[in-house]
Write a structure and sequence with these properties.
By secondary structure, the protein is α+β, with helices and mostly antiparallel strands. Helices cover about 50% and strands about 15% of the residues. It is globular, with a radius of gyration of 14 Å.
Amino acid sequence: MSELIVWHDGSCPLCRREIALMRRLDRRGAITFVDATSADDASCPLDRADLLARFHASEDGKLLSGAAAFAAMWRQIPVLRPFGLAARSPAVLALLERGYRAFLRVRPRLQRFVSGAGAA
């Protein structure tokens, strides 16, 4: 298996839930999860704001962003591996990236909802 580092936004309630689920599914401990909000600058491969704006991972030293980063993470988790392998197809990855970009537009509202601020 490849070496995988995943950076996540530890201050985002939505991200914390997702990463908690991925940690539970990663029973082999194949993924190194790094909270980009508390990581030292040496561990961040990009400017912190850029790192937090999109999902990033490093697979065998290659920096991935967006859907490609998710696919790399999925390949390390047995139950999600078929989705990660399917994303190696350029057409599938392009479709996933389009979905990810749409998600980024609604992410702020989802974050507020998950944190309880959306219930007024």
